[in-house]
Each structure stands twice: as structure tokens, then as C-alpha cells.
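Re: [help] complex structure
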Amino acid sequence: MARIAGVNIPTQKRVLVALTYIHGIGQTKAKEICTKVGIPQDRRVHQLTDDDVVRIREVIDRDYRVEGDLRREVAMNIKRLMDLGCYRGLRHRKGLPVHGQRTHTNARTRKGPARAIAGKKKTV
Amino acid sequence: MARSVWKGPFVDGYLLKKAEASRASGRNEVIKTWSRRSTILPQFVGLTFGVYNGHKFLPVLVTENMIGHKFGEFSPTRFFHGHTAADKKAVRKD
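Output below.
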């Protein structure tokens, strides 16, 4: 069991893949970390020595913002926009798409499941 | 895509002059502007701008957080008044 950056405990998988289970680390950063620590691509997590694990932990702590810190930063950025009263903030407040997408149809990710409209005629 | 850094921030020239004049005069009056495309610069902080939204000039008090945004972002051009209640004559067909 390897515990890196808080609660993440992926084993059996290759280190490259296991690291992506951490929020804020995708394939690119996982690759960067592996080269920095000097772990071969096909090494699996359970094969790591304790020393390797410590060094991975150090690199992540030093160079990357992950998990709770990252989530907090993102939330703060959104909160800043909302408090500012700018267009993007208004869209966040209303739960509508922020980047200028259409809302006539689609936009279901932001708007949530479709709500039935009272009194609307059903076709056939 | 983001604007190239070497170009610097875009501001309509007359707006800069107006802001300076307002600063010099000391009175904090609303500077009416149509220039929604102008970037908010540090020297605008504390001034109030009336940003036109195609209908009227909405007062925007510039704070430090707004630096780097555009004036247009603070003056919405569309107003959603909600949908009208469903027409009673519209009969549901099953």
C-alpha cells in the first residue's frame, strides 16, 4: 500500500497510471514525476521501494498543487468571478455555460436534467 | 485565444484622457463610455464608469479585482425576464 498526497492508495497498476488517480495529476504530470524521480515506465506500484515512494511524495509536495489545495484554488477562482459581478460570474451563479455555448438546446451538463414544462403540448 | 503580451492591454485612448481629467478634477462623477472593449487598468481603480449596454449606462465602480477584465463584462446586454405562464388554451394531447 502506497499512500501519496493524502488519501490515494493505488496499487498493482503501473506507477505512470497509478499517479493519475491523484486529483490534479494526469498523464503528462505523471510522466514528469516519473522522469524526475527516475522510475522506469513499466514499474508497478507494489514494486516500489519505500525510498522511491518518499521521493515521489517529495516531488509532488514541492512542485505540484494537488487534491484539496487544488480544489480550493479552483473554488476560490470561481468565487472571485461571482463576487466581482462580471459576466462569467453571473453565468456561474445561474448555473449556465460560461464560455458562450448555446443554451437554446443542449447545455445539459450545466443545467442538469431537463424539467418538464407545464401545459406544453406533446406531439402525437 | 489570449491576446499577445507584447501588444499590451487594449484601451481606447480617449478613455485614458477622461479618467485622468476626472482624477485631476477630484469630483467623483460617472464617466460615461461606450467603450466596452477597453481593458480595466490599474489607474482606473476607484473611479466610476457608466458602461453602455445598448440601452443605458450602468454604473460600474472599479475595484482592484477588476483589473485585466474588460468594461463590457460588467454591463450585461441581455435581460431574461422569465417565461410567460403556459397558455390555458394549449390542451395536452396524449
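Chain A has a mean pLDDT of 87.
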